Amino acid sequence: MNSISIYNTNDGTWSSMNAVGDVIGARQSYAAVLNKNGFIVIYGGAANNYTVAPNPALATLDTNSIPYKWSAKQFNSVYAPPPLAYHSAQLVGDYMIIAFGAGLLNAKFDLATAPNNNIFILDTSNYTWVSSITNTSTLNIIPSGSSPSNPNPTTSNSSEGSSFITIPLIAGLGSLLGAFIIIASIIGIVFCCTNTRI
């Protein structure tokens, strides 16, 4: 993972750079996000033909330095995910939210036998695994097509003055979205099949 391919979206050209820093093991089927400080954060994946987890599981690539610099991130937390491959990740504020994918079972990452049914949250401001997102008023999450009625909102949802987005809430919303996609797919398939018979 030392040779980094770079695509310039302004002029449509490719270049490459040799990254320096910690040794980051080769991997496939991992998830990555770009945080607000210009660090690409990668987690998980698989190595050796999907039979082992790569080392280290968590790493960052500093795109602010030239050449780019890899850093291995060590962690020991009850909130940390197990080795995962095929998972997805999104960045919400400083939080990398990891969901789906497959765990490592019997020396194999397999979606059929070891699906991941949990959601994991990494605070990318200090690279610690957490159980919930706190202080959501600083995340500036505004649904598409709407605008805030008050540009400087205040929240007081709890006695401590912070609100929480919990893992069950995220899981519920994800399940609802998944159910909607499945239903829409079934309707689309039925519609296509009935139109091809006519």
Automatic annotation (TrEMBL):
Pfam families: Kelch_KLHDC2_KLHL20_DRC7 (PF24681). The keyword Coiled coil does not apply. Keywords: Membrane, Transmembrane, Transmembrane helix. This is Kelch repeat protein. SUPFAM superfamilies: Galactose oxidase, central domain. The chain crosses the membrane at residues 169-193. The keyword Acyltransferase does not apply. It comes from Gigaspora rosea. It comes from the Eukaryota.
